[in-house]
Design brief:
Strand content: 25-35%
Shape: elongated
Largest sheet: 8 strands, mixed
Strand order of the largest sheet: 7-8-10-9-11-22-12-21
Number of domains: 3
Number of strands: 22
Bound molecules: zinc ion
Distance between the termini: 29 Å
CATH class of the largest domain: Alpha Beta
Length: 533
Amino acid sequence: MHNKRTVFPVAQTFHAVAQTFSRRRMQIARGSLESARVLNVPTGRRLKTCDTADWKVCATIDAQPFLVAQVFQPAVSPTFSRHRVCLARDLRYSRSPATSPQPCARGQGCPRSVWLLAILMLLPAAGIAGDASTQVNKISQAAEALRTTLIQTRRDFHMHPELSNHEERTSRIVAEKLRGFGMDEIRTNVAGYGVVALLKGAHPGRVVALRADMDALPINETMDVPYKSLVPGVKHACGHDAHTTIELGVAELLSKMRGDIRGSVKFVFQPAEEAPPGEKPIGAALMIQEGVLENPRPGAIFGLHTTTEIDAGKIGYRAGAAQASSDSFVITIHGKMSHAADPQKGVDSIVVAAECVTALQTIKSRRIDTFEPIILTIGTIHGGNRPNIITDEVKMEGTVRTFNEGARKQIEQMMRQTLGGVTAAYGATFDLDYRHGTMVVFNEPKLVEASLPSIRRAVGDANLVEAPKRMGAEDFSFYQQVVPGFLLRLGSGNKAKGITAEAHTPEFDIDEECLVTGVKVMSTLVVDYLNAH
Ligand SMILES: [Zn+2]
Ligand SMILES: [Zn+2]
């Protein structure tokens, strides 16, 4: 027997439930329950049952002046829904004869005795988790219904990619859609083209945030698809078009489920995730500086990132350190110019630079703990302008990746030490401009653990996979410095369809099936998080 039944005492509760249900989903309930009131149904008489596909409301006149409404869910509900507990908590009814309950005047509290009785009777139910399966089914159906819209939205963003800090069109469309969904608050032009919206649920509760990034990359689209980029040299090659689309999908879906939501959802649309760190904060760091995590402050933040390494329909997760920190640096070697025929009169900065490149590799191979995964890459090297001149300057740029803050500090020190020693040996000098970028993406283990059951219910047990660490960085890590966060990996590959190209390549694409999966998972995570806190 799956039916779970909860008894709402107090005539006023009965009336409120009837009204709420009739307003939201059960027009029939109003007629039935109202008629009980008007007809003054005798004690003990059971009213007719009102059914919809999802809910059943029965009413029994138990004993004057109390009415008892039995509200239960006939399907697979394992437990009493917190949603309905909240409905009852929202009561604003004064104690009055059972046959004619009257709403309190606005702002006027109910008599304490009524409140106390209602709360005491509801406490056992409140301790039980919500009717999660039904909610997941509801979310799942709503996400499926959005499929066409999601694909259209993603293709529109894909055809109009915008580079970091130039997301004008994207953010305008995001804000327009959010207004259409009836968000309670919308802030635009946050940290450039960022957009932040707040959706308030029908019931009091905490706040949870979702973050999507919106920018594209300076990569030329080589795919011949109907939704090919219309901007030469710019492409959504990291799936941020999908991230933005999914978060809009979640906003649309949840805006239609306000009645089921406790607390609020903060939707964060962030610019400039791809931009390299500079002197001033950008992207996530600037969003935080401009208050995105305040007023109200979320208890947790969730995000996702597409990956073609995992098939569409699946979700990857990793608790703890999941993605590497990413720093960048510029090394300038200063030598002395001379005629190429008289090298002894100069200091050849190219030869010194070559020695430095080799010596820097020993930091990884010989100096840092061998069990510590790190990367130290020199990505560019530029120097000289004529074949017959000993050049006096070489510039090199590179990146450092780690999973460990201690190793990160050590590497910077060792680079200075190495460059100092090598350049001194040749009579050269150096400058090292070391720029601290994104931190390690650290998925709070308790948050991950608490989230996994929700993901399982949304996509099925077999579609949840533990993912390996990645050296790729993500500025989602900045949010995680402030509040617990969980960045999921959204499977977006499909070998049968030939969708295997990695992010940041001209051939990158996603299996659009992942859009519906993303909306399902993120919506479920939000609702479950708010129900549990
Ligand atoms: Zn990227
Ligand atoms: Zn990305």
